[in-house]
Amino acid sequence: MEREIRVLVVDDNEGVRSFVCAALAAKGFLVLQSDCGSGALEILREDSVPVDVVLTDVVMPGMNGPDLARNLADLSPLLPVLYMTGFTDRNVSVPYGATVLHKPFSISDLLAAVERVIHPARTATP
After folding, report:
1. What's the rounded Cα separation, in Å, for the pair 39 and 113?
2. Residue 79 sits in a domain of what CATH number?
3. Which of 3, 27, 82, 111 is most deeply packed, by most CB within 10 A?
């Protein structure tokens, strides 16, 4: 039997964070959450079970999503990161080729994006 896929959701907006966490938990994911980048790093440093994917908001106070991802790379270089953003008019820089989920999004869009970053080979277009 496969172990549960662990997802860390990082978003400063409680409503978005709650929606994402509830949707993922309903589909069988084990969900951890933080309202900020520094809190996410603390969870990853202290948790004894590895996280499989991080979903992070792009624009947050303090440490933004891309800065969080750079810090994550120091802890776990292969940890997939999925970015979420509601901003289309700001010059927000995410790594080239990153998966970005634009808010508002549906549960099916969320699940498809998570699947793409966790299992890229399964979802690649031939």
Report:
1. 23
2. 3.40.50.2300
3. 82
Structural domain total, the chain: 1
Structural domain including 11 reads 6-119
Cis peptide before 120 (omega within 30 of 0): no
Would you say residue 79 lies in a domain?
yes
Sequence-separated (6 or more) residues with CB below 8 Å from residue 124: none
Nearest to residue 87, comparing CAs of 76, 71, 101, 75? 101
**The two structure tokens encoding residue 45:** 């440093």
Residue at 54 is within a domain: yes
Q: Which amino acid is at 117?
A: V
Structure tokens given for 55:
């979903």
Determine the Cα–Cα distance for residues 64 and 120; give it in Å rounded to an integer.
Answer: 25
Q: Please give the helix or strand (H or E) that residue 21 lies within, else none.
A: helix 14-26
Alpha-carbon span 94 to 29, nearest angstrom: 25
